[in-house]
């Protein structure tokens, strides 16, 4: 896959879970309101279009069977971090999601992964971990414990950079930052992020690590525009993130818009639904 000058798409492998039992029955983040009607049928439609978008872009999509009684299981990114074939599972903070972790653990074991480690610290996986190709960015503040950062470094064998989240609306790192282009021997990693979601110190760290980052504004963040998925050229983002899209185009990326209005009622978007498997 090749495309815009300076931007090269790389085929990816994703694990996803159909939101057959999607519902908002409890509130574990500011986006969730159990009194607001939701439609599992509409959520499935949005999810199907997201998965089809990945396939059209040349990516491989695998699925895990949804389980009744686990309405948030659709948010696959929260259930595992895979780097160089090593799998670090999840340990959820909210009791309502605890059972999801073992279903994903078994999926990896059933698909031939021998090196699967379940964490001892609270760890919400790619919700709070973002692989840059060189090191793992790791968020904390609302869900994942700081101790999980050190555990991830030991299990995955990669350097970890800790970042402090400050705004409860952006309770996971993947609601405030995503990797646009992984590092390669010829160029550094490139990211997009919303500075106001981070502590002052973490903002300084991000500015130092990524001086040419795409900076999102409040409107981008409020539609979960930073909950995007990039293959190095094509960037899948919510349809409302028009300011972010314009900045991405200026940087040589090609946005693909998806509707996540129903899934967003649970605080999730494209990335939340997508666990990347990096063998």
How would you explain this protein's 3D organization?
The model has no long low-confidence stretch (mean pLDDT 97). α6 links the parallel β13 (234-238) and β14. The chain has one domain (13-276): L-arginine/glycine Amidinotransferase, Chain A (5-stranded Propeller), CATH 3.75.10. The longest helix has 17 residues, at 40-56. The protein has helices at 40-56, 100-110, 147-156, 200-209, 218-222, 242-250, and strands at residues 13-16, 60-63, 81-83, 86-88, 116-117, 129-131, 136-140, 160-164, 177-181, 190-193, 214-215, 229-230, 234-238, 254-258, 275-276. The chain has 279 residues and is of the alpha/beta class. The strands form five sheets. The chain has a three-stranded mixed β-sheet, covered by helices on one side. This is N-dimethylarginine dimethylaminohydrolase.
Whole-number tally of structural domains: 1
**In angstroms, what separates the terminal alpha carbons?**
19 Å
What are the low-pLDDT stretches, counting only 5+ consecutive residues below 50? none
Q: Using the coordinates shown, work out and report the CATH topology.
A: L-arginine/glycine Amidinotransferase, Chain A
SSE pattern, N- to C-terminal: EHEEEHEEEHEEEHEHEEHEE
CATH architecture level-2 label = 5-stranded Propeller
By CATH's scheme, which homologous superfamily applies? L-arginine/glycine Amidinotransferase, Chain A
Radius of gyration: 17 Å
Biggest sheet: strand arrangement: 2-1-15
Helical segment count: 6
The CATH class is Alpha Beta
Q: Which percent range describes the beta-strand content?
A: 15-25%
